[in-house]
Amino acid sequence: MPGDDTPVTKCTISDEFETVKRGHVIGMKDLGSVNLSERDWRWQNGKIFWQRHKSARKTISTVGIHPDRQSKFTAITYEGEDAQKAWEDDFKQFSHASRTGFFQLFGINRSDIPMLIFHHELIPVAHLFTDSLWMNVYINYLRKKKGCSEEDLWLNTSSGVLCEGPTGPHFITWAFNTDASAIQALPSSVDMLEEETSVAFFSKFGFEVDSGILECAQEFYEHTYLNDLLPNTTEDHQHEDNSYPQWTVDYPYLKYSWRNLPHHRPIDIISGLRFDTVYSPSLDPVARWPPEAPGLWKWRDVIWLVEETRIDGGLTRFKLNGQGGKTYLESRFDLETFQRGWLSQAARVFDPLKTTGHQESFFVVNPPWPRLRSAPQEYTAYDGPLAPSDPCDAVEETRPVYFFLHPPPMTISEFISWVNGRTRFWSFDKDGRTRIPEEKCRQLGIPILTPDIKSYAGLRSWPTHIYPALCNWQIARGFDPSTADWARECGFPEFEIVRAKKNDQFEEIP
Question: Which domain of life does this protein belong to (predicted)?
Fold first, then answer.
């Protein structure tokens, strides 16, 4: 009314929620805390200096609110120098949330130790996570559907629905390629965390989800050590003073195959281990990548070498594309393809072995990655043609130059020989008939490539629960696990079963 001096109270978004006194909050169960502290770095006088940028911690609890002792709520309490800022960030996000897939804010407390209080008893998925294959698969799909981190997922115990909320306790799931149609149809019900329900759902999408499931299963690999597999063989040679034994100087890329390094050179123990073979805990081969399948070694990051061609005798040929630049190439073993091929048909291999235990000790060998590169002085020392008094050499400079690589190694012993000796050569001939001597290469400015090792050899195995999980998946997909049908469906060749176990002895399978 005109002349009415009654003050008008401005309504804010915080007025839309209950203001709850701290004394009315009854703690019932602690669900963990999250450190929100952050640090920035700056570069000064050639050194990195770290400084704290944000300092806060939030604690998550199941609580009751006086006087309603029947209902349960979820409270997040913020502490630290930047507690108010952290509270405001979460309040801004969840004060506008009204969809069932999000936290529903009930009340607030704006004291020195502020709180956000949400409807219902909510449990962070981190507390439910068992790190099984199918829980990893489902959570990865769910976080992609909701566009959030796995740490932002919570279970609403009242509805049995998984929803998105503030960042909860830390845990990690494996990321892998997902199928868009499966994401779109994905339910958010808690029973999807169970293997039977999850398998039944994803099996509807068939081949489209196979590769992602194998990719996820592969990431469960664990490091295995020869000490654990052959303790009696290595314990007598344990290096006593914990310093590196001499053999690691000659073979540094082998030292991580042991948890504790043996004193004497262990080549006699591991020399025959193949990179394309699966081994039992007693180091017996059980399955192998078939020789007629595409090779597992790949040349990559090739610089100044072109026209890669496989020729008779197993040699790989490249053509030198100009001179004067650093020449480089690196070889990598396609371990991912090999491992997924193994996991896709492990049930078929275990079946004739009658293997019911110790599946977690079956392993593959992850080889080091060799690379070849030219030293700078080798391609800068000669920056022009030879003297015209040598017409033959002048003609040679205009001829194509070819680089030949011997077949990459498939065993530890072959790897040692390959790195230390018979690896590569140059030739003017397309078929490599005549080699160019090293001194001649230096005179002509042809790069002298020397081997180098980029990584280390290691053993990989998978926890026992992975194998039955994949076996059940094959059955759900309509495949017989005692065959390689599912492996072929996924694009992998049928592995050779090398040996079958009978009366505790291994025999060749014809």
Answer: Eukaryota
